[in-house]
């Protein structure tokens, strides 16, 4: 019982420090999502392009990012690029790595959502005189957004957890903040437990937002 109280007290003592680092974690996740979404959309369109070169380049990008660990990608960008003459600060390196990783996964979500729209709807739009861009903007994308929403939300939740990896390049986000507390107190259980609970609360809140948006989109689809 005494040991449990010590762990609980160490978690409570670490909580203010961890909460101060939480906006950094959220900032990285949101930045990667906001930057990765348009990039992922472009990659998805490239994979659907009739030009073989675009399909090939985008396919290799997606395959490489999805086939290698995010931690390795962070190391390549932050520690590897300086050997080529490009030095990035930890924040820029972390955001770029998370953005590229998110873009690859988002592109597959977007591509699958676009392909899920029946081809007949595109043909009907063409017969009505709509251009390809108008068909995409007015017919395909609104429906694809509803299809992709759960996966997009899951990607954001995953990004919140993936931000812990930028701690290896000295970014003081949630996990790194816990490690710094542990270095002072030599008590690992409490700070790590507090950090895990914060990640859990953030993910749970995002899931609630996701469900609310899904219900709203569902009502819009049946209206």
UniProtKB/TrEMBL annotation:
<feature type="transmembrane region" description="Helical">
    <location>
        <begin position="26"/>
        <end position="45"/>
    </location>
</feature>
<dbReference type="InterPro" id="IPR035906">
    <property type="entry name" value="MetI-like_sf"/>
</dbReference>
<feature type="transmembrane region" description="Helical">
    <location>
        <begin position="87"/>
        <end position="106"/>
    </location>
</feature>
<dbReference type="InterPro" id="IPR043429">
    <property type="entry name" value="ArtM/GltK/GlnP/TcyL/YhdX-like"/>
</dbReference>
<comment type="similarity">
    <text>Belongs to the binding-protein-dependent transport system permease family.</text>
</comment>
<keyword id="KW-0029">Amino-acid transport</keyword>
<dbReference type="GO" id="GO:0022857">
    <property type="term" value="F:transmembrane transporter activity"/>
</dbReference>
<dbReference type="GO" id="GO:0043190">
    <property type="term" value="C:ATP-binding cassette (ABC) transporter complex"/>
</dbReference>
<dbReference type="InterPro" id="IPR010065">
    <property type="entry name" value="AA_ABC_transptr_permease_3TM"/>
</dbReference>
<feature type="transmembrane region" description="Helical">
    <location>
        <begin position="57"/>
        <end position="81"/>
    </location>
</feature>
<dbReference type="InterPro" id="IPR000515">
    <property type="entry name" value="MetI-like"/>
</dbReference>
<protein>
    <submittedName>
        <fullName>Amino acid ABC transporter, permease protein</fullName>
    </submittedName>
</protein>
<feature type="domain" description="ABC transmembrane type-1">
    <location>
        <begin position="22"/>
        <end position="210"/>
    </location>
</feature>
<keyword id="KW-0812">Transmembrane</keyword>
<dbReference type="Pfam" id="PF00528">
    <property type="entry name" value="BPD_transp_1"/>
</dbReference>
<keyword id="KW-0472">Membrane</keyword>
<keyword id="KW-1133">Transmembrane helix</keyword>
<dbReference type="GO" id="GO:0006865">
    <property type="term" value="P:amino acid transport"/>
</dbReference>
<keyword id="KW-1003">Cell membrane</keyword>
<keyword id="KW-0813">Transport</keyword>
